[in-house]
Amino acid sequence: GENVEQHPSTLSVQEGDSAVIKCTYSDSASNYFPWYKQELGKRPQLIIDIRSNVGEKKDQRIAVTLNKTAKHFSLHITETQPEDSAVYFCAAPKGFQKLVFGTGTRLLVSP
Amino acid sequence: DSGVTQTPKHLITATGQRVTLRCSPRSGDLSVYWYQQSLDQGLQFLIQYYNGEERAKGNILERFSAQQFPDLHSELNLSSLELGDSALYFCASSAGGSNTEAFFGQGTRLTVV
Asked: Using CA atoms, how far apart are residues A104 and A3, in angstroms rounded to an integer?
C-alpha cells in the first residue's frame, strides 16, 4: 500500500531516557523523510529531515537514521525532557506530489 | 509562525450545510496540501495542488472539493456536512513537490452539530 507504518503508537519514558520511533515506507523512489512534532492543539512542525543520500543526521538531542535497503527510518531523541512530550509523525513522499504521514506516536516524558 | 495562513480558525455549522476553508501559502510556495485530522488521529492526505493544478488525490470524499487560484491561495469546500466531518483541517505549503519541506498552517477546527 501507500501508507507509512509507524511504531510504537504510544511511548512512555522517564526524563533523561532515550526514545526511538520507527517508520517503514513502501515507495522505493522516496528520497526525503521528514519528522514532525505536534503539540496538543497546535500545528505539526518539522523537527528534522533526512535525504536519501545520507544515512544519519543529528541536531542536538535529535537524530534520524535511514536504511534505504530495508526502507526504514527512525527518530532518536536522547536525554528526553518533559517538553518533548507530543505526538511525532514521520512522513515520506509517494510520487512527486503526495506526502504521506505515518499514524503518529504519542510520546510522554515523565519527570 | 510558519507563514501559512488558514481562515477561519474555528467553524461551527449544522449537518447538511456547506463550508469553505481558506489557505494562503507561504510567499513563493507553489504546492498546497490539504490534510484532515480527526480527534486523536493521524494526518489523512486529502488533495494537493501545484501552481494551480490538481496533482494528487488521497481519500477525499466526493462531497469535498478544492481548488488553487492564480494567486496560489487555496480553498477546500465541504458540502452536505455530516457529524463525522468534524475534524481539524490543515493546509500545508512547500516550494516544490513532496520532497521539499512542508510548512503547516494553524488549522481550521470544524465542528458539525
From this structure: 12
pLDDT in tens, chain B (113 residues): 889 999 999 999 999 999 999 999 999 999 999 999 998 788 999 999 999 999 989 889 999 999 999 999 999 999 999 999 999 999 999 998 777 889 999 999 999 99
Measured CA to CA, the distance from residue A89 to residue A71 in angstroms comes to 16
Residue A83: what are its φ and ψ, rounded to 5°?
A: -70, -5
Query: What residues of B are in contact with residue A99 (Cβ under 8 Å)?
Result: 33, 45, 48, 92, 94, 98, 102
CA distance A46 to B104: 9
Contact B69, B52 (CB under 8 A): yes
Type of residue at B84: G
Cβ contact (<8 Å) for B98 and A101? no
- Other beta carbons less than 10 A from residue A49's beta carbon: 18
